[in-house]
Amino acid sequence: MTTPQEELLPGTRRALSHRIAVAQSEGRAPSLVAAVVRDGRAVWHGSRTSVEGHGPDENVQYRIGSITKTFTAVLVMRLRDEGLLDLGDPLEKHLPGTGAGEATVSELLAHTGGLAAESPAPWWERTPGSMRPELADVLGEQPLLHPVGRRHHYSNPGYTLLGALVEKLRGAPWEDVLRSEVLEPLGLHRTSGRPKAPHAGGWAVHPWADVMLPEPAEDLGRMAPAGQLWSTTGDLARFAAFLVDGDDQVLSAASVREMRQPAAPGESADVAEGAAYGLGLQIQHRHGRLLAGHSGSLPGFLATLFFSESDDVAAVVLANCTSGPLLSLVAADLIRIVAEAEPRIPAPWRPMAEVDPAVLELAGQWYWGTHAFALRLTADGLVSLEPLSGKGRRSRFRANGDGTWTGLEGYYAGEFLQAVRRPDGSVSHLDLGSFVFTRQPYDEGAPVPGGVDPEGWRGIP
Q1: pLDDT value of position 3
Q2: What is the pTM assigned to this prediction?
Q3: Are 272 and 228 in contact (CB under 8 A)?
C-alpha cells in the first residue's frame, strides 16, 4: 500500500504529475501509470489515461517485459549465495547439451555469452511459446554469434537458459520457484506470469493517425524468464526498494549491490552515453546521477524501473502501448524532480562507539611519493583513503581482523592495506598492494622503493 502522498510537497507532486501528463500526451499512450519510492516505500502514485473518468491505480497490472530478467537474475544469485553454483561456472557444468555451454553463468547474466539477441523466426513476442517447446527451438542451429565473453550483446535466449538453469537446480518450474522464493517473501501479490484482473489491455498506436489496434498477449513458454511477467506500480515499488537495500529473506544487500556493478564490456556508443550492464540490471548516467534498474517492452506494453542509490529515490513507469513514450527518460526525470526538490536529509553524524588506539594512530595525512592522501576512520568501522586534492584513486577498506584491511572499490578493490611497524612498535609506513605510503614525501626513514637521494630536497641555485 502506498504511503500518504502528502509526504511529498505539493510543488513536487505537481511537477511529477506534469511530467507523466506530458509523457502520456506526447507519447500517445492509452494509459500511463507511475510511482516514486523514497526511504524504501512508495510516496507518490500517478496515472494518466485516455479513458474518460477512469484512472488506473497502483493495483492495475501491466506487462513488464524484460524487467522479468531482473527477477530471474535474483533467483540465480540466490543459487550462488547458497553454494549451488559459482558465477564463473560454465553453463555446461549444470545444464549440459545446450550448444552454448561454454558461456559462464555471469556471462549469461551480463549478456556477454555471445548468444543471439532473439530466437529464430517467427517473432517470438507475438507468437505462442508452444512453437518453441525445447531449448533447441529457442537457441536455433547457431546459438553463438560472437566470441564468448568478449562483447555485450543483449540476449533474450540467454535468460531463457538461466531460467532453465533455475529449474534444473531447484527441480521445479521457473514461475513456481519465483513465486515461493521472491514474490511471496517480498509481498508482491500482484505480480504473476499471466494477467489477473484488473489489468490493462495492450495496444499498438498507429504512427501517423490517432487510432489503435489491440496487441495479442502470448504466453511465452520457454522464453518466460526473459519477459513473461505482469505487475503493478505498487509491486514494482516494493521490488525497487528491495533492489536498493536487499532483504535477507531473498537476497542480501551485498548481493544486490553486486548485481548493479558493471559486469559487461560496453560498446563504444554505450560508453559515450554513460550506459552499462551489471548482473541482470542496466546502469545509466542521467542528470549527473548513477541509476540502476531495467526497462522492458512486449507488444502492447512498455515498462521501466530505475533507482538512484545516492538519492534513495526510485521511479516506476508503465504504459500500455507498443511504442511511444521513452519511459527510461520519464523515470530519470521523476527521480531528478524529487531529488532536487526534496534532497535526501542525511542521518545525524554520530561518533564511534569505541576505537582501537592502534588504528587511530594511523589516521591523518600520508604520502604516496609526492601525492598527499588522508586516511580516515568512520563510524561504520571502515577506513577510507582518499587524495587531498579531491582527484585520484580512493577507496574504503574493510578490516580483516588480523591488522589488515581489504579495499572495497575502485583501483584498490580487493587489494590489501596494512601498517608496517618497526621493531619498537612505531609505524614505519603503510603498504597498499606494494605501494608505500609515508608520513612525509619520500620519507628517508621508510623503505621507499628506489631509495631517497641522500642530499635530500633542494632548490635550483
Answers
A1: 42
A2: 0.91
A3: no
